[in-house]
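Entry 14. Structure prediction run on the chain below.
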Amino acid sequence: MSARERAPRLPVVPGGAPEPGRAPEAPADASRVDLRDEHLHALLVAFYDEVGRDAMLAPYFAPVDMTAHMPRIVDFWSTILFHTGRYSGNAFRPHAEMPGLTGAHFGRWLSVLERVVDARFAGQAADRLKDVAHRVAFSMQIRLGIAPFAASV
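Output returned:
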């Protein structure tokens, strides 16, 4: 079993892929639409604003010019989620240069991400973003040689 197959995954929730011939289920909260590529920039700005206020995570992002870096982050997620092909590069490298990262940091990052996504979006793409974020975090932890966070973090 590969590391990707062992990565923690979120449960499938209503709004996931419909059965053939059935319309997709409406999100539980009709005020939240599903995530689309054009939403990524605003979502990620909101997310990293939250990260910048988080006592555990903020020190890792304080030296980064997030305004300048945001287009690359958006392109990364756009490529992964919507297959746009806009990102090329090594997303792991900057994380390898962050001393002291632990599984708890990744758990907190995921918790903040899920909270920000859930406050704004509901549906298949929003769920996929959260699922992929778990797999990315798991993979980064393995590559960094740290024990992956516990799901309860």
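Residues 1-28 have pLDDT under 50 and may be disordered.
Filed with the rest of this week's runs.
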